[in-house]
Amino acid sequence: MRGTKIAMLSEGVGYGASSLAGIAGLGLAAAASHTPNGEILMPAALVALTHAPMLLLLGHLSARPHQIVLRGTLVVLVLGLLLFCGDLAVRAVGMPRLFPGAAPLGGIVLMIGWGGVALAGLARLRAPRANTDPIRLNRED
Protein backbone atom coordinates (compact mmCIF):
# COMPACT_ATOMS: atom_id res chain seq x y z
CA MET A 1 0.00 0.00 0.00
CA ARG A 2 2.82 2.42 0.86
CA GLY A 3 4.43 1.83 -2.54
CA THR A 4 1.17 2.73 -4.26
CA LYS A 5 0.94 6.00 -2.34
CA ILE A 6 4.53 6.90 -3.24
CA ALA A 7 3.89 6.04 -6.89
CA MET A 8 0.74 8.19 -6.95
CA LEU A 9 2.59 11.03 -5.25
CA SER A 10 5.50 10.95 -7.70
CA GLU A 11 3.09 10.80 -10.62
CA GLY A 12 1.18 13.80 -9.26
CA VAL A 13 4.39 15.73 -8.64
CA GLY A 14 5.54 15.04 -12.19
CA TYR A 15 2.24 16.08 -13.76
CA GLY A 16 1.92 19.16 -11.56
CA ALA A 17 5.54 20.25 -12.02
CA SER A 18 5.25 19.71 -15.76
CA SER A 19 2.18 21.88 -16.07
CA LEU A 20 3.68 24.60 -13.88
CA ALA A 21 6.93 24.54 -15.87
CA GLY A 22 4.96 24.89 -19.09
CA ILE A 23 2.88 27.75 -17.73
CA ALA A 24 5.96 29.47 -16.29
CA GLY A 25 7.88 29.00 -19.52
CA LEU A 26 5.13 30.58 -21.61
CA GLY A 27 4.73 33.41 -19.12
CA LEU A 28 8.46 34.05 -19.01
CA ALA A 29 8.66 34.06 -22.80
CA ALA A 30 5.80 36.56 -23.01
CA ALA A 31 7.40 38.74 -20.34
CA ALA A 32 10.73 38.57 -22.18
CA SER A 33 9.04 40.10 -25.22
CA HIS A 34 7.19 42.85 -23.39
CA THR A 35 9.39 44.07 -20.54
CA PRO A 36 12.39 46.38 -20.69
CA ASN A 37 14.71 43.93 -18.89
CA GLY A 38 13.24 40.91 -20.66
CA GLU A 39 16.38 39.49 -22.24
CA ILE A 40 17.30 37.87 -18.92
CA LEU A 41 13.98 35.97 -18.96
CA MET A 42 14.45 34.15 -22.27
CA PRO A 43 16.95 31.56 -20.92
CA ALA A 44 14.57 30.83 -18.03
CA ALA A 45 11.67 30.46 -20.48
CA LEU A 46 13.62 28.07 -22.68
CA VAL A 47 14.79 25.96 -19.75
CA ALA A 48 11.29 25.76 -18.27
CA LEU A 49 9.68 24.86 -21.59
CA THR A 50 12.26 22.24 -22.51
CA HIS A 51 12.02 20.54 -19.11
CA ALA A 52 8.20 20.45 -18.96
CA PRO A 53 7.85 17.35 -21.18
CA MET A 54 10.62 15.56 -19.26
CA LEU A 55 8.86 16.20 -15.95
CA LEU A 56 5.64 14.80 -17.43
CA LEU A 57 7.46 11.69 -18.63
CA LEU A 58 9.31 11.23 -15.34
CA GLY A 59 6.04 11.57 -13.43
CA HIS A 60 4.51 8.85 -15.56
CA LEU A 61 7.49 6.49 -15.50
CA SER A 62 8.26 6.96 -11.79
CA ALA A 63 4.79 5.66 -10.91
CA ARG A 64 5.91 2.14 -11.82
CA PRO A 65 7.29 -0.07 -9.05
CA HIS A 66 11.00 0.09 -8.13
CA GLN A 67 11.73 3.44 -9.77
CA ILE A 68 13.63 5.13 -6.95
CA VAL A 69 16.20 6.64 -9.33
CA LEU A 70 13.51 8.22 -11.50
CA ARG A 71 11.69 9.58 -8.44
CA GLY A 72 14.90 11.14 -7.17
CA THR A 73 15.66 12.53 -10.62
CA LEU A 74 12.22 14.13 -10.73
CA VAL A 75 12.85 15.92 -7.43
CA VAL A 76 16.33 17.04 -8.51
CA LEU A 77 15.05 18.47 -11.81
CA VAL A 78 12.24 20.36 -10.07
CA LEU A 79 14.71 21.83 -7.58
CA GLY A 80 17.08 22.83 -10.38
CA LEU A 81 14.26 24.52 -12.30
CA LEU A 82 13.15 26.46 -9.25
CA LEU A 83 16.67 27.70 -8.61
CA PHE A 84 17.59 28.55 -12.19
CA CYS A 85 14.31 30.04 -13.41
CA GLY A 86 13.43 31.60 -10.06
CA ASP A 87 16.72 33.46 -9.76
CA LEU A 88 16.52 34.85 -13.30
CA ALA A 89 12.88 35.85 -12.82
CA VAL A 90 13.45 37.76 -9.58
CA ARG A 91 16.45 39.56 -11.06
CA ALA A 92 14.41 40.58 -14.10
CA VAL A 93 11.84 42.37 -11.93
CA GLY A 94 14.52 44.19 -9.98
CA MET A 95 14.44 42.11 -6.81
CA PRO A 96 17.66 40.84 -5.25
CA ARG A 97 18.96 37.41 -6.25
CA LEU A 98 17.72 34.39 -4.36
CA PHE A 99 21.31 34.01 -3.16
CA PRO A 100 24.68 34.48 -4.86
CA GLY A 101 25.17 31.82 -7.50
CA ALA A 102 21.58 30.52 -7.41
CA ALA A 103 21.15 30.40 -11.20
CA PRO A 104 24.46 28.62 -11.87
CA LEU A 105 23.74 26.22 -9.02
CA GLY A 106 20.31 25.56 -10.52
CA GLY A 107 21.96 24.79 -13.86
CA ILE A 108 24.35 22.37 -12.21
CA VAL A 109 21.48 20.71 -10.36
CA LEU A 110 19.64 20.34 -13.69
CA MET A 111 22.72 18.66 -15.19
CA ILE A 112 22.83 16.29 -12.22
CA GLY A 113 19.15 15.54 -12.87
CA TRP A 114 19.90 14.64 -16.46
CA GLY A 115 22.67 12.41 -15.15
CA GLY A 116 19.97 10.70 -13.09
CA VAL A 117 18.05 10.00 -16.29
CA ALA A 118 21.17 8.36 -17.73
CA LEU A 119 21.66 6.38 -14.53
CA ALA A 120 18.07 5.14 -14.68
CA GLY A 121 18.64 4.09 -18.27
CA LEU A 122 21.78 2.18 -17.34
CA ALA A 123 19.95 0.51 -14.46
CA ARG A 124 17.20 -0.49 -16.88
CA LEU A 125 19.75 -2.11 -19.18
CA ARG A 126 21.09 -4.20 -16.32
CA ALA A 127 17.69 -5.26 -14.95
CA PRO A 128 16.49 -8.75 -15.83
CA ARG A 129 13.46 -8.74 -18.10
CA ALA A 130 10.79 -11.21 -19.00
CA ASN A 131 11.01 -12.43 -22.58
CA THR A 132 8.37 -10.35 -24.32
CA ASP A 133 9.78 -10.53 -27.83
CA PRO A 134 6.74 -11.53 -29.97
CA ILE A 135 8.90 -13.40 -32.48
CA ARG A 136 10.47 -15.58 -29.80
CA LEU A 137 7.16 -16.12 -27.99
CA ASN A 138 5.70 -17.83 -31.06
CA ARG A 139 8.72 -20.03 -31.71
CA GLU A 140 9.45 -23.25 -29.95
CA ASP A 141 13.20 -23.72 -29.52
Could you please describe the fold and organization of this structure?
- It is a single chain.
- Helix 1 runs antiparallel to helix 2, helix 1 packs parallel to helix 3 and helix 2 (41-61) packs antiparallel against helix 3.
- This protein has one domain (2-128).
- It is built from 5 helices and no strands.
- The protein is elongated and about 55 Å long.
- With 141 residues, it is mainly α.
Rounded Rg: 19 Å
**Count of DSSP helices?**
5
**SS strand fraction:** under 5%
Terminal Cα separation, in Å? 40 Å
What distinguishing features does this structure have?
single chain; 141 residues; mainly alpha
Summarize the entry for a quick read:
The protein has 141 residues and is mainly alpha-helical. It contains 5 helices and no strands.
Any chance you could write out the topology, listing elements then pairs?
Layout: H1 2-34, H2 41-61, H3 68-92, H4 102-126, H5 134-138
Helix pairs in contact: 1-2, 1-3, 2-3, 3-4
